Amino acid sequence: MGEPRSTEPVILLDEVFPGDTNALDTLFGGHLMSIMDRAAGLAASKFAHEEFVTVSVDALKFERPAYQGDIIRTIGRVVWTSPRTVGVLVRSCRMTRSDWEPEQICSGYFFMVAIDDEMRPISVPQFTPISDEEISLWNDAKAARDAMRT
Fold first, then answer.
1. How far apart are CA 28 and CA 12, in angstroms?
2. Residue 148: CB partners within 8 Å, gap ≥ 6?
3. 84 with 115: CB under 8 angstroms?
4. What pTM, to 2 d.p., does this model score?
5. Residue 17, Ramachandran bin (φ over 0: left; ψ between -120 and 50: alpha; else beta)
6. Residue 150's pLDDT band (boundaries 50, 70, 90)?
């Protein structure tokens, strides 16, 4: 399958609008999951230059709310691969327009399968972790994937 096309993360910025929030003016969790899924798909596609679909999501950790008017920065980074699957660590932070300081609100692993024009799984390039951080994230993603399979 060759080498990965890019191992650089994907960064998305979104604004929390009134229609994205509940009665407490906090961002709906499902809307945040949608943003995170989009970032995972784009990171996987950038990595392999293929089409991907979501096959599973590790238990997301919602750490704190985001509020109407916040900016949501979502970063998707490929950290694990198997022959047809890419594991993407996705982290979302909230920022206000007054300070733009990121405060993490949610994180989790999204597992994406590469597909052909007929929606059949295809092979992907393999990610080889090198740094201590990459090896640690690889092991964490593999453990999350393995836990979902049992």
1. 17
2. 56, 58, 111
3. no
4. 0.94
5. beta
6. low
